[in-house]
Design brief:
This protein has about 350 residues and is α+β, with helices and mostly antiparallel strands. Among the domains are: about 80 residues; about 90 residues, Immunoglobulins (Immunoglobulin-like), CATH 2.60.40. Helix content is about 30%, strand content about 15%. It contains nine helices and nine strands. The strands form two sheets. A five-stranded mixed β-sheet has the order 2-9-8-4-5, with helices on one face. A hairpin with a 2-residue loop joins β6 and β7. It is elongated and about 95 Å long. The termini are far apart.
Amino acid sequence: MAISLGTRISGLLVAGAVAVAVTAFGGDRGGGPESGGDGGGGAIVTAGPSARPLAAAPSASPTPRQSPAGEASGLVDPTAPPHTHRGTAPHPSASRTRPPAGRPLPSPAWLPPGPVSPDADAVPDAWSLYDRLRDPARCRTALPLIDRTPAGPDRRLLRGLAEACLAVQGRGGSWDTAAADHTALAGRADTCKERAAYAVLGALLDFHRQHPHATVPLRTARGGPPACAYRVAGVDTSQAAPGDTVGIELRGVYFDPAELARYGEVFIGGKRLDPAPVIRSRNGDALVLAAVVPALDGCPRTADVVVRYGSAEARLPDALTVVAPAAVPSPAPSSGTPQGVLPLGPLPAHLPRP
Protein backbone atom coordinates (compact mmCIF):
# COMPACT_ATOMS: atom_id res chain seq x y z
CA MET A 1 0.00 0.00 0.00
CA ALA A 2 2.94 2.40 0.76
CA ILE A 3 4.32 2.04 -2.74
CA SER A 4 0.92 2.44 -4.28
CA LEU A 5 0.22 5.62 -2.24
CA GLY A 6 3.55 7.23 -3.25
CA THR A 7 2.95 6.45 -6.85
CA ARG A 8 -0.43 8.09 -6.65
CA ILE A 9 1.02 11.19 -4.95
CA SER A 10 3.74 11.49 -7.65
CA GLY A 11 1.14 11.20 -10.36
CA LEU A 12 -0.95 13.95 -8.80
CA LEU A 13 2.08 16.27 -8.55
CA VAL A 14 2.99 15.67 -12.22
CA ALA A 15 -0.61 16.32 -13.31
CA GLY A 16 -0.74 19.51 -11.31
CA ALA A 17 2.51 20.77 -12.83
CA VAL A 18 1.23 20.05 -16.32
CA ALA A 19 -2.01 21.91 -15.61
CA VAL A 20 -0.13 24.95 -14.32
CA ALA A 21 2.10 24.98 -17.41
CA VAL A 22 -0.84 24.69 -19.79
CA THR A 23 -2.65 27.53 -18.06
CA ALA A 24 0.44 29.75 -18.16
CA PHE A 25 1.11 29.27 -21.88
CA GLY A 26 -2.55 29.63 -22.93
CA GLY A 27 -3.09 32.96 -21.18
CA ASP A 28 -2.57 35.05 -24.38
CA ARG A 29 -5.83 33.87 -25.84
CA GLY A 30 -8.26 34.46 -23.08
CA GLY A 31 -6.96 36.09 -20.00
CA GLY A 32 -6.34 39.80 -20.86
CA PRO A 33 -8.88 42.59 -20.83
CA GLU A 34 -8.49 43.22 -24.61
CA SER A 35 -9.70 39.64 -25.34
CA GLY A 36 -12.88 40.05 -23.40
CA GLY A 37 -11.82 37.60 -20.60
CA ASP A 38 -12.50 38.10 -16.92
CA GLY A 39 -8.94 39.07 -16.11
CA GLY A 40 -8.33 35.93 -13.99
CA GLY A 41 -4.86 34.34 -13.63
CA GLY A 42 -3.14 37.74 -13.81
CA ALA A 43 0.19 36.58 -12.30
CA ILE A 44 0.51 33.61 -14.57
CA VAL A 45 -0.49 35.57 -17.74
CA THR A 46 1.96 38.35 -17.00
CA ALA A 47 4.79 35.85 -16.75
CA GLY A 48 3.89 34.15 -20.04
CA PRO A 49 4.29 35.18 -23.69
CA SER A 50 1.50 37.76 -23.34
CA ALA A 51 4.00 40.09 -21.66
CA ARG A 52 5.29 41.09 -25.11
CA PRO A 53 4.45 44.82 -25.96
CA LEU A 54 1.28 45.29 -28.02
CA ALA A 55 1.49 46.70 -31.58
CA ALA A 56 0.65 50.42 -31.88
CA ALA A 57 -2.93 51.18 -32.82
CA PRO A 58 -3.41 52.52 -36.38
CA SER A 59 -3.74 56.29 -36.78
CA ALA A 60 -7.21 57.76 -37.03
CA SER A 61 -6.26 59.99 -39.99
CA PRO A 62 -7.65 59.07 -43.43
CA THR A 63 -5.59 56.95 -45.76
CA PRO A 64 -3.97 59.08 -48.49
CA ARG A 65 -5.36 58.54 -51.96
CA GLN A 66 -4.51 60.01 -55.33
CA SER A 67 -6.19 63.30 -56.18
CA PRO A 68 -8.47 63.56 -59.22
CA ALA A 69 -5.91 65.70 -61.02
CA GLY A 70 -3.40 62.86 -60.87
CA GLU A 71 -0.93 64.21 -58.29
CA ALA A 72 0.86 61.48 -56.37
CA SER A 73 1.24 63.54 -53.22
CA GLY A 74 -1.27 65.46 -51.15
CA LEU A 75 -4.62 64.49 -49.72
CA VAL A 76 -8.01 65.04 -51.19
CA ASP A 77 -10.98 66.09 -49.11
CA PRO A 78 -12.66 62.77 -48.05
CA THR A 79 -16.03 64.35 -48.85
CA ALA A 80 -15.02 65.07 -52.45
CA PRO A 81 -16.55 62.86 -55.15
CA PRO A 82 -14.38 59.89 -56.09
CA HIS A 83 -12.14 60.05 -59.12
CA THR A 84 -13.88 58.65 -62.14
CA HIS A 85 -10.72 57.50 -63.94
CA ARG A 86 -9.72 54.74 -61.49
CA GLY A 87 -6.63 52.87 -62.53
CA THR A 88 -6.03 55.02 -65.64
CA ALA A 89 -4.06 58.19 -66.21
CA PRO A 90 -6.18 61.31 -66.73
CA HIS A 91 -6.49 62.78 -70.19
CA PRO A 92 -3.80 65.47 -70.67
CA SER A 93 -6.46 68.16 -71.07
CA ALA A 94 -8.43 67.14 -68.00
CA SER A 95 -6.02 68.62 -65.50
CA ARG A 96 -5.94 71.89 -67.47
CA THR A 97 -9.70 72.13 -67.69
CA ARG A 98 -10.26 71.65 -63.98
CA PRO A 99 -9.79 74.97 -62.10
CA PRO A 100 -8.17 75.06 -58.66
CA ALA A 101 -10.46 73.84 -55.90
CA GLY A 102 -13.05 76.45 -55.03
CA ARG A 103 -11.99 78.86 -57.79
CA PRO A 104 -13.73 79.19 -61.17
CA LEU A 105 -11.81 79.71 -64.39
CA PRO A 106 -11.25 83.40 -65.22
CA SER A 107 -13.13 84.68 -68.25
CA PRO A 108 -10.98 85.65 -71.24
CA ALA A 109 -10.71 89.36 -71.98
CA TRP A 110 -13.32 90.63 -74.41
CA LEU A 111 -13.32 93.47 -76.95
CA PRO A 112 -12.03 96.86 -75.75
CA PRO A 113 -13.99 100.05 -76.50
CA GLY A 114 -13.84 101.18 -80.12
CA PRO A 115 -14.84 104.01 -79.56
CA VAL A 116 -18.41 103.68 -80.87
CA SER A 117 -18.83 104.55 -84.53
CA PRO A 118 -21.29 107.43 -85.27
CA ASP A 119 -22.89 105.21 -87.99
CA ALA A 120 -25.05 107.96 -89.47
CA ASP A 121 -26.44 105.76 -92.27
CA ALA A 122 -27.34 102.81 -89.97
CA VAL A 123 -26.06 100.37 -92.60
CA PRO A 124 -24.16 97.39 -91.10
CA ASP A 125 -20.43 97.72 -91.64
CA ALA A 126 -17.33 96.30 -89.99
CA TRP A 127 -16.89 99.32 -87.71
CA SER A 128 -20.45 99.39 -86.32
CA LEU A 129 -20.63 95.58 -86.02
CA TYR A 130 -17.51 95.63 -83.86
CA ASP A 131 -19.46 97.92 -81.53
CA ARG A 132 -22.40 95.49 -81.50
CA LEU A 133 -20.15 92.55 -80.64
CA ARG A 134 -18.78 94.40 -77.61
CA ASP A 135 -21.87 93.11 -75.81
CA PRO A 136 -21.28 89.32 -75.66
CA ALA A 137 -25.02 88.73 -75.32
CA ARG A 138 -25.50 90.06 -78.87
CA CYS A 139 -23.12 87.71 -80.65
CA ARG A 140 -25.93 85.55 -82.03
CA THR A 141 -27.96 88.46 -83.40
CA ALA A 142 -24.80 89.93 -84.96
CA LEU A 143 -24.20 86.89 -87.20
CA PRO A 144 -26.97 87.60 -89.78
CA LEU A 145 -25.89 91.25 -89.92
CA ILE A 146 -22.29 90.20 -90.54
CA ASP A 147 -23.47 88.06 -93.45
CA ARG A 148 -25.03 91.16 -95.04
CA THR A 149 -21.74 93.05 -95.25
CA PRO A 150 -19.55 92.88 -98.37
CA ALA A 151 -17.27 89.85 -98.57
CA GLY A 152 -13.77 90.53 -97.35
CA PRO A 153 -11.30 89.91 -94.53
CA ASP A 154 -13.20 92.10 -92.09
CA ARG A 155 -16.42 90.13 -92.54
CA ARG A 156 -14.62 86.81 -92.06
CA LEU A 157 -12.87 88.10 -88.95
CA LEU A 158 -16.12 89.25 -87.34
CA ARG A 159 -17.80 85.95 -88.20
CA GLY A 160 -15.02 83.94 -86.54
CA LEU A 161 -15.19 86.19 -83.50
CA ALA A 162 -18.96 85.78 -83.17
CA GLU A 163 -18.66 81.98 -83.48
CA ALA A 164 -15.99 81.85 -80.77
CA CYS A 165 -18.07 84.18 -78.58
CA LEU A 166 -20.96 81.72 -78.67
CA ALA A 167 -18.80 78.61 -78.29
CA VAL A 168 -16.85 79.74 -75.24
CA GLN A 169 -20.11 80.58 -73.47
CA GLY A 170 -21.67 77.20 -74.28
CA ARG A 171 -24.32 78.77 -76.50
CA GLY A 172 -23.49 77.01 -79.75
CA GLY A 173 -21.03 78.51 -82.19
CA SER A 174 -18.21 76.69 -83.94
CA TRP A 175 -14.63 76.46 -82.72
CA ASP A 176 -13.65 74.99 -86.10
CA THR A 177 -14.95 78.02 -88.00
CA ALA A 178 -13.32 80.41 -85.56
CA ALA A 179 -9.96 78.65 -85.84
CA ALA A 180 -10.10 78.52 -89.65
CA ASP A 181 -10.92 82.23 -89.90
CA HIS A 182 -8.17 83.15 -87.47
CA THR A 183 -5.59 81.16 -89.43
CA ALA A 184 -6.69 82.56 -92.80
CA LEU A 185 -6.47 86.19 -91.61
CA ALA A 186 -2.98 86.13 -90.09
CA GLY A 187 -1.31 89.46 -90.90
CA ARG A 188 -4.35 90.85 -92.72
CA ALA A 189 -6.03 92.93 -90.00
CA ASP A 190 -5.23 96.49 -91.09
CA THR A 191 -7.49 98.72 -88.98
CA CYS A 192 -7.37 99.37 -85.25
CA LYS A 193 -10.71 97.64 -84.63
CA GLU A 194 -9.71 94.67 -86.77
CA ARG A 195 -6.42 94.29 -84.90
CA ALA A 196 -8.24 94.33 -81.57
CA ALA A 197 -10.79 91.76 -82.80
CA TYR A 198 -8.05 89.49 -84.14
CA ALA A 199 -6.15 89.59 -80.83
CA VAL A 200 -9.30 88.73 -78.84
CA LEU A 201 -10.14 85.86 -81.20
CA GLY A 202 -6.62 84.47 -80.75
CA ALA A 203 -6.95 84.66 -76.97
CA LEU A 204 -10.27 82.76 -77.08
CA LEU A 205 -8.70 80.01 -79.18
CA ASP A 206 -5.78 79.75 -76.73
CA PHE A 207 -8.26 79.44 -73.87
CA HIS A 208 -10.09 76.66 -75.70
CA ARG A 209 -6.86 74.75 -76.35
CA GLN A 210 -5.98 74.87 -72.65
CA HIS A 211 -9.53 74.10 -71.44
CA PRO A 212 -11.22 72.23 -74.31
CA HIS A 213 -14.34 71.29 -72.32
CA ALA A 214 -14.77 74.49 -70.31
CA THR A 215 -17.40 77.18 -70.86
CA VAL A 216 -17.26 80.57 -69.21
CA PRO A 217 -19.29 83.77 -69.45
CA LEU A 218 -17.86 86.77 -71.29
CA ARG A 219 -18.22 90.26 -69.88
CA THR A 220 -18.29 93.63 -71.60
CA ALA A 221 -15.00 95.42 -71.00
CA ARG A 222 -15.43 98.55 -68.90
CA GLY A 223 -12.94 101.36 -69.18
CA GLY A 224 -9.40 100.81 -70.35
CA PRO A 225 -7.73 102.26 -73.43
CA PRO A 226 -9.78 102.19 -76.65
CA ALA A 227 -8.79 100.11 -79.64
CA CYS A 228 -8.37 103.22 -81.81
CA ALA A 229 -6.59 106.51 -81.11
CA TYR A 230 -8.33 108.83 -83.57
CA ARG A 231 -6.34 111.96 -84.39
CA VAL A 232 -5.15 114.41 -87.06
CA ALA A 233 -1.61 113.20 -87.67
CA GLY A 234 -0.50 116.18 -89.74
CA VAL A 235 -0.89 118.43 -92.76
CA ASP A 236 1.27 118.00 -95.84
CA THR A 237 2.44 121.63 -95.82
CA SER A 238 3.36 124.12 -93.14
CA GLN A 239 2.19 127.18 -95.06
CA ALA A 240 -0.65 127.78 -97.50
CA ALA A 241 -2.64 130.62 -98.94
CA PRO A 242 -6.42 130.81 -99.39
CA GLY A 243 -7.45 128.70 -102.34
CA ASP A 244 -4.57 126.24 -101.97
CA THR A 245 -5.39 122.54 -101.61
CA VAL A 246 -3.75 120.80 -98.68
CA GLY A 247 -3.69 117.16 -97.54
CA ILE A 248 -4.92 116.37 -93.99
CA GLU A 249 -3.83 112.97 -92.65
CA LEU A 250 -6.05 111.11 -90.17
CA ARG A 251 -4.98 108.08 -88.12
CA GLY A 252 -6.99 105.62 -86.03
CA VAL A 253 -10.23 106.08 -87.99
CA TYR A 254 -12.85 103.91 -86.23
CA PHE A 255 -15.85 104.49 -88.51
CA ASP A 256 -16.73 103.94 -92.15
CA PRO A 257 -14.62 106.38 -94.23
CA ALA A 258 -17.40 106.61 -96.82
CA GLU A 259 -19.65 108.10 -94.15
CA LEU A 260 -17.02 110.74 -93.35
CA ALA A 261 -17.03 111.85 -96.99
CA ARG A 262 -20.84 112.21 -96.88
CA TYR A 263 -21.46 113.53 -93.39
CA GLY A 264 -18.13 114.85 -92.16
CA GLU A 265 -16.94 118.43 -91.75
CA VAL A 266 -13.50 120.06 -91.90
CA PHE A 267 -12.61 123.37 -90.24
CA ILE A 268 -9.44 125.37 -90.89
CA GLY A 269 -8.87 128.35 -88.62
CA GLY A 270 -12.43 127.95 -87.30
CA LYS A 271 -14.01 128.31 -90.73
CA ARG A 272 -16.06 125.42 -92.06
CA LEU A 273 -15.07 124.27 -95.52
CA ASP A 274 -17.59 123.91 -98.24
CA PRO A 275 -17.87 121.50 -100.04
CA ALA A 276 -17.41 118.36 -97.88
CA PRO A 277 -13.94 116.83 -97.63
CA VAL A 278 -12.68 114.55 -100.37
CA ILE A 279 -10.79 111.35 -99.53
CA ARG A 280 -7.53 111.46 -101.45
CA SER A 281 -6.18 108.09 -100.25
CA ARG A 282 -6.77 105.37 -97.68
CA ASN A 283 -4.50 102.77 -96.09
CA GLY A 284 -6.17 100.72 -93.34
CA ASP A 285 -7.33 103.14 -90.66
CA ALA A 286 -5.28 106.04 -92.13
CA LEU A 287 -6.95 108.55 -94.46
CA VAL A 288 -5.72 111.61 -96.35
CA LEU A 289 -8.33 114.27 -97.01
CA ALA A 290 -8.01 116.97 -99.67
CA ALA A 291 -9.19 120.35 -98.37
CA VAL A 292 -9.15 123.86 -99.85
CA VAL A 293 -7.80 126.57 -97.51
CA PRO A 294 -10.41 129.29 -96.91
CA ALA A 295 -9.77 133.02 -96.72
CA LEU A 296 -9.10 134.08 -93.13
CA ASP A 297 -8.84 137.47 -91.46
CA GLY A 298 -5.58 138.69 -90.03
CA CYS A 299 -3.23 136.76 -92.27
CA PRO A 300 -0.60 135.59 -91.86
CA ARG A 301 -1.80 133.54 -88.90
CA THR A 302 -1.62 130.00 -87.56
CA ALA A 303 -4.72 127.88 -87.92
CA ASP A 304 -6.08 124.78 -86.22
CA VAL A 305 -7.42 121.90 -88.30
CA VAL A 306 -10.52 120.07 -87.05
CA VAL A 307 -12.19 117.05 -88.66
CA ARG A 308 -15.62 116.21 -87.24
CA TYR A 309 -18.12 113.46 -87.95
CA GLY A 310 -20.96 113.16 -85.45
CA SER A 311 -19.42 112.61 -82.02
CA ALA A 312 -16.01 111.84 -83.54
CA GLU A 313 -13.71 114.84 -83.57
CA ALA A 314 -9.98 115.15 -84.17
CA ARG A 315 -8.07 118.41 -83.76
CA LEU A 316 -4.52 119.51 -84.54
CA PRO A 317 -3.69 122.90 -83.01
CA ASP A 318 -1.56 125.29 -85.06
CA ALA A 319 -1.53 122.82 -87.92
CA LEU A 320 -0.36 125.34 -90.56
CA THR A 321 0.18 129.02 -91.24
CA VAL A 322 -2.28 130.71 -93.59
CA VAL A 323 -0.67 133.59 -95.45
CA ALA A 324 -2.27 136.39 -97.44
CA PRO A 325 -2.54 135.68 -101.12
CA ALA A 326 0.21 137.21 -103.24
CA ALA A 327 -0.83 140.49 -104.88
CA VAL A 328 -1.24 140.25 -108.67
CA PRO A 329 0.36 143.33 -110.33
CA SER A 330 -2.01 145.27 -112.57
CA PRO A 331 -0.74 146.35 -116.05
CA ALA A 332 0.60 149.96 -116.23
CA PRO A 333 -1.36 152.35 -118.46
CA SER A 334 0.34 153.18 -121.84
CA SER A 335 -0.11 155.76 -124.62
CA GLY A 336 0.23 155.23 -128.32
CA THR A 337 -0.19 152.11 -130.29
CA PRO A 338 0.87 148.88 -128.63
CA GLN A 339 3.79 147.18 -130.28
CA GLY A 340 2.81 144.89 -133.11
CA VAL A 341 -0.51 146.60 -133.77
CA LEU A 342 -0.98 148.65 -136.96
CA PRO A 343 -2.86 151.92 -136.69
CA LEU A 344 -6.09 152.12 -138.61
CA GLY A 345 -7.06 155.41 -140.32
CA PRO A 346 -10.52 156.44 -141.40
CA LEU A 347 -11.84 154.32 -144.19
CA PRO A 348 -13.43 156.10 -147.16
CA ALA A 349 -17.08 155.55 -147.57
CA HIS A 350 -16.65 154.62 -151.21
CA LEU A 351 -13.51 153.57 -152.90
CA PRO A 352 -12.73 155.51 -156.10
CA ARG A 353 -13.40 153.72 -159.32
CA PRO A 354 -10.57 153.23 -161.74
